[in-house]
Amino acid sequence: VISEGFFDQLAGIVGEGHVLRDPDLLASYVGDWTGRFSGSTPAVVRPGSVDEVAEVVGLCAAERVPLVPQGGNTGLVGGSVPLGGEIVVSVLRLDHLGSVEEEAGQITAGAGVTVGAVQRAAKAYGWAYGVDLASRDSATVGGTIATNAGGLHVLRYGATRAQLLGVEAVLGTGAVISHLGGLRKDNTGYDLAGLLCGSEGTLGIVTAATLRLVPQANERVVALLAFETSDSAIAAGLALPRLVPSLSAAELCLGSGIQLVCDALGLPPPFPQPHEAYVLVEAAATYDPAPELETAVSSLAGVADVAVAPDDLRGAALWRYREAHTEVINTLGAPHKLDVALPARGLARFVGEVSSTVAHVDRGAATWLFGHVGDGAVHVNVTGVAPDDDRVDVAVLELVTSLGGSISAEHGIGSAKRQWLARTRSQAEIEAFRALKRAWDPAGICNPGVLLP
Ligand code: FAD
Ligand code: 2HG
Ligand code: ZN
Question: How far does residue 326's CA lie from ligand 2's centre (Å)?
Answer without folding.
Answer: 6
